[in-house]
Amino acid sequence: MDASDTGMKAAAMPENPLINDPDAGIERLLEIMRRLRDPETGCPWDVEQDFATIAPYTIEEAYEVADAIEREAWDELKGELGDLLFQSVFHAQLAQEAGHFTFQDVVRTMSDKMVSRHPHVFGDQSNAKFADQQTADWEAIKAAERAGKQQKGALDGVAPNLPALLRALKLQKRAARVGFDWPDASDVLAKITEEAAELVEARDNLDADAMEDEFGDLLFVMVNLGRHLGVEPETALRRTNAKFTRRFEAVEAELTNRGKTPQTSTLEEMDALWDLAKAREKSAP
């Protein structure tokens, strides 16, 4: 592109003061998004995107927010929340272009929802309630909203594309609301023993399809156990992933100090170093 082309582009799209105003708030971001999506003067990559291509980035950004919180990386969290907000702005811009709704419609819908779901804050109900009662009230309001959307089944509205652990948890919570639930965690533990035995049987029979099915059943019951114990499955697994990473990296570091690698070490050596890393973690203040 030569200088004349640059001048033509600038003439076609005059600069909006909002874009260079650091104090313009959300209106600045909305204008930036609109400009990025302009068919003639926008960014070619942004112009090519649609809901389906952007959705994976939205999911990724949500996980990066969770990761920053888990690491208590507060400076990073500011940026990650911004990235997630930009995803909402992107989807809203796509929707506006298609004539579905605008970003302001999104804001209005969420604001109306929060007001209607918190009558003890914004209405005439008393807010002198314990958290459990407020949670029960919240679920009752959401149930009424689903009824208004003509969702008949207890599981209606649980998005199929949620991460599997999260969807399992939501399905179980919905079923529990209508009484389909074990009374306490001991019953779930008994079910885990049963499912583990069925998985072993499938393995012994070398039945690949049955193994996958039984493994899924075992995971599903483990999610249920977490629900009964008040443990969020995704959070627990992320914590274990982080713990495994720390300890395995400690094993690798110690092997490097000894002039070795995992490939040149025995399982017994690595197990011993793993136990050492574990002990050091537990004894750390």
TrEMBL record:
Read off the InterPro entries from this record.
Answer: MazG-like_dom, NTP-PPase_MazG-like_C, NTP-PPase_MazG-like_N, NTP_PyrPHydrolase_MazG
Question: Does the entry feature the keyword DNA repair, yes or no?
Answer: no
Q: What Enzyme Commission number(s) apply to this enzyme? A: 3.6.1.8
Any GO molecular function: ATP diphosphatase activity
Output the superkingdom of the source species: Bacteria
Give a GO biological-process term. UTP catabolic process
Region annotation (Disordered) maps to: 1-20
Q: Where is the NTP pyrophosphohydrolase MazG-like domain?
A: 49-122, 188-248
**Catalytically driven reaction(s):** ATP + H2O = AMP + diphosphate + H(+)
Keywords, comma-separated and alphabetical:
Hydrolase
PANTHER family on file: NUCLEOSIDE TRIPHOSPHATE PYROPHOSPHOHYDROLASE
Q: Which family does it belong to?
A: Belongs to the nucleoside triphosphate pyrophosphohydrolase family.
Q: Which NCBIfam families match?
A: mazG, PRK09562.1
Q: What is this protein called?
A: Nucleoside triphosphate pyrophosphohydrolase
